[in-house]
Amino acid sequence: MPIRVRPSDLESAYPEHIRVRDEGTRNLVAAAGSARVIAASVAFPPGADAHEQIVLDAGGVVLRSGRWDGPGTWFEHALAPAPRIDVVDAARRTVDALDAPPGSVLEVVDEA
Questions:
Q1: How many CA atoms, within 13 angstroms, populate the side-chain half-sphere of residue 81?
Q2: Which of 67, 39, 65 is nearest to 51 (CA)?
Q3: Kind and range of the H or E run holding 65
Q4: What digits encode the pLDDT tens for the residues 14-66?
Q5: Residue 1 lies in a domain
Q6: Measured distance CA(59)–CA(55) in Å, rounded
Q7: 39 phi and psi, to 5 degrees?
Q8: Are the C-beta atoms of 42 and 82 separated by less than 8 Å?
Q9: Contacts of 16 (CB under 8 A, 6+ apart)
Q10: Which has the closest alpha carbon to 103: 61, 65, 64?
């Protein structure tokens, strides 16, 4: 379950978010056994962190997504700041990632 916070509290919640993400990723990779892991990350700011490295070391795939806009997102009625991706396009690109080679890092952002 995601950590739910108000946008004004995002900065103060960041350390807890990172802790949960890193611990959860380690647990997921351990539970996956020989199954490949595809993990969501962010393209803002881009760059490998512990969460991504855990996935890549296990031969998984990392999807660095832009901010989602569209139905059910924080930016449901407006474009998200760049980098962004429409939530429907993000879902399509996630399905496409099922065929990505192990150890791949894919940017899931609008091209425009």
A1: 3
A2: 39
A3: strand 61-65
A4: 788 788 889 999 999 999 999 999 998 988 876 668 999 999 999 999 999 99
A5: no
A6: 7
A7: -120, 140
A8: no
A9: 3
A10: 61
Tell me the whole-structure pTM to 2 decimals. 0.82
Kindly state the tokens that stand for 93.
């690109």
* β-bridge partners, 64: 41, 107
Domain count, the chain: 1
The answer to whether residue 50 is domain-embedded is yes
Half-sphere exposure for 83 (CA within 13 Å, toward CB): 15
Under DSSP, the state recorded for 89 is: H
Residue recorded with tokens 């379950």 = 1
Distance between CA atoms of residues 10 and 17, nearest Å: 9
In this structure, how many other beta carbons lie within 10 angstroms of the beta carbon of residue 7?
7
Give the C-alpha separation, 24 to 58, whole Å: 14
Q: Tell me whether residue 2 is in a domain.
A: no
